[in-house]
Design brief:
Length: 531
């Protein structure tokens, strides 16, 4: 009796195993990943880890001067493309320079100079990507081997355009892991985006704008459109015309992507129109908290009823401005809470005995700890999402890029208080900390967002992987793609139709007026004759 049940178990198990391996092998695909370097790689890697775990074979294209993407990895095979000599002084020189300029005050001209500086630097990056892609296209051995491998899809971060170009050349379905494209915020490239209630990134506006804010929003939009296509888009445009023919428009190639896995969602974003091939995966990087290392746990427990504050400004920004760090430390020293501060570089003056400086913290596990009361963040990759996931309110110190907008969204939802880096001193910072600690609405609002985030049928990462596999199984997702990518601006906005209708109406009105005038005159003449 027992034995036969055992046997049955074995055969069921065996059957399941065979079924499982058949399923997983039929799903195993080949993915060509063209990532963006720098902090964007962190997010791409999360998808790669998950795809690898599902048994897919992954190839990553990297530049020879890559900062983050290693050549050897158990997760993927890499293709290294020579990027030539390129001074990657971005981290060492450019960012500190950017911060200094901000600290000099927020004048109009300063702002313009700042933006200009960023644009020049990024234009260089885009040109370098085009050079790198050209090196690939002109290497016949490489192109042939890529073709022979018969990948199922290209997965890319369209903040840079190399992946879009490569997918078109190889004729492969295209999946985006996206927050930014070459042209700006992702949605603006494919979804209808009425500027009356959709703020462009960079102005820290919300979806409730006054008249003057709407004017600013439209002007900023036009400027972004112009600058991004002139400085960022044009190298790719030239490239497309050179390699694909004079009628090929890079922007259309980009819009033509099969699936857009967006790294945000409507817990973070203001509600807006979207598209059938957009998949929101905001918070895909978040995980439940694991227990802390013993020492950290001891420190956290010693905080008692007051709880702990966590501060991290990311790897790069953390060590930049010692005068700011000194003020921050002085403010922390006046609080009863314990503080864990991720900080490298010179030790700040004014450090209180409640503050622990560490050079690394398990950020996600810390945010998930029940003693954690407050998160001091710069609004960079993952910080805001992890704070939402664990329901921890924020004091924001935005520094550059889209960080101010990320935090202003949180402020608009009543979950964060922003401190301007240009005016930061110990009193301003302390007031902000106290407000978020003592006014319960911040925590309540954040916990409401957290609840909303967790209340969905499928985890964001599972959703993302489902859609990548969907594209493998169905060779793309053209049935979800609108035809907008075929259209010029004039067609898209029906400007041609409106003009035609207006001209027709005008002609009709003229003709009617002319005929009426004619009859009036005839009648009038008759009258005159009779009299
Ligand atoms: C994955 O693909 C690469 C390149 O095509 C190949 O060299 C490698 O053997 C493959 N790995 C597996 C586990 O199939
Ligand atoms: C790209 O290549 C062109 C021509 O080979 C060269 O002049 C330019 O300096 C390169 N740009 C970058 C950013 O590497
Ligand atoms: C072309 O690509 C192959 C394979 O990746 C590489 O071994 C070779 O060095 C490349 N040739 C040139 C000229 O870059
Ligand atoms: C920390 O500093 C405060 C005030 O400066 C002092 O009252 C307290 O005893 C100190 N605590 C420890 C553990 O040194
Ligand atoms: C801003 O938030 C988005 C969405 O969470 C994230 O993808 C992006 O990386 C953040 N910005 C920066 C500069 O890290």
């Amino acid at each position: 009796m027992h034995r036969s049940t055992m046997k049955m178990h074995y055969s069921t198990l065996l059957g399941l195993f065979i079924l499982f391996s058949a399923l997983s092998s039929s799903y195993a695909g080949k993915v060509l990943v063209v990532p963006a370097d720098g902090s964007h790689w962190i997010n791409m890697k999360i998808l790669i880890v998950e795809l690898h775990a599902k048994g897919h074979n992954i190839t990553v294209v990297r530049g020879s001067s890559s900062w983050y993407i290693t050549e050897q990895s158990p997760l993927y095979t890499s293709i290294t493309v020579d990027t030539g000599a390129f001074d990657d002084d971005f981290m060492e020189k450019f960012l500190p320079h950017l911060l200094k300029m901000q600290r000099q005050g927020r004048s109009f001209w300063n702002e313009i100079a700042l933006v200009d500086e960023v644009y020049r630097k990024f234009t260089e990056f885009h040109q370098q990507i085009c050079n790198m892609t050209a090196a690939m296209f002109e290497n016949e051995t490489l192109m042939n081997s890529l073709k022979d491998t018969a990948y199922d899809l290209v997965l890319t971060d369209p903040a840079f355009g190399g992946g879009v170009l490569l997918a078109h050349r190889l004729g492969l379905p295209l999946v985006f892991n996206v927050r930014w494209t070459v042209y700006g915020e992702e949605h603006f490239d494919i979804a209808p985006s009425p500027l009356s209630y959709i703020p462009v990134i960079g102005l820290q506006l919300t979806d409730k704008m006054t008249f003057s804010q709407r004017v600013m929003n439209v002007l900023a939009y036009i400027m972004i459109l112009y600058k991004h296509s002139k400085y960022f888009g044009s190298p790719y445009q030239e490239f497309s015309q050179k390699y694909f023919g004079p009628n090929v428009d890079f922007f259309s190639l980009l819009q033509n992507a099969d699936i857009w896995l967006m790294r945000n969602d409507f817990i973070f974003e203001f509600p807006r129109p979207t598209m059938p091939n957009v998949v929101y995966m905001g918070g895909f990087q978040c995980k439940p908290a694991k227990p802390l290392p013993d020492e950290l746990e001891k420190f956290v427990q010693s905080s008692g009823e007051h709880g702990v504050i966590i501060m991290t400004l990311g790897t790069v920004f953390g060590q930049l401005l010692s005068e700011i760090n000194d003020e921050v430390a002085a403010a922390f020293a006046q609080l009863p809470q314990k503080v864990i501060w991720r900080h490298t570089g010179p030790r700040p003056a004014n450090l209180g005995n409640n503050t622990l400086i560490v050079d690394w913290i398990p950020q996600n596990d810390m945010l998930g700890h029940p003693q954690t009361k407050l998160f001091v963040a710069h609004g960079g990759t993952n910080g805001v999402q992890e704070a939402i996931y664990h329901g921890v309110p924020i004091v924001g110190l935005p520094l550059a890029f889209d960080q101010p907008d990320n935090l202003s969204r949180m402020q608009a939802k009543g979950t964060a208080k922003i401190v301007d880096i240009a005016t930061l001193d110990r009193t301003v910072f302390l007031d902000a900390l106290k407000e978020v600690l003592h006014n319960p609405s911040y925590k309540e609002n954040m916990q409401r967002l957290s609840k909303l985030h967790h209340d969905q049928p499928m985890k964001p990462l599972d959703r993302a992987v489902f859609w990548i596999e969907f594209v493998m199984r169905n060779r793309g997702a053209p049935h979800l793609r609108t035809q907008s990518f075929r259209m010029s601006w004039i067609e898209y906005h029906s400007v041609d139709v409106i003009l035609t209708l207006m001209v027709t109406l005008l002609i009709f009105a003229f003709v009617t007026a002319y005929i009426m005038r004619y009859f009036c005159m005839v009648l009038f003449r008759k009258k005159v004759k009779r009299e």
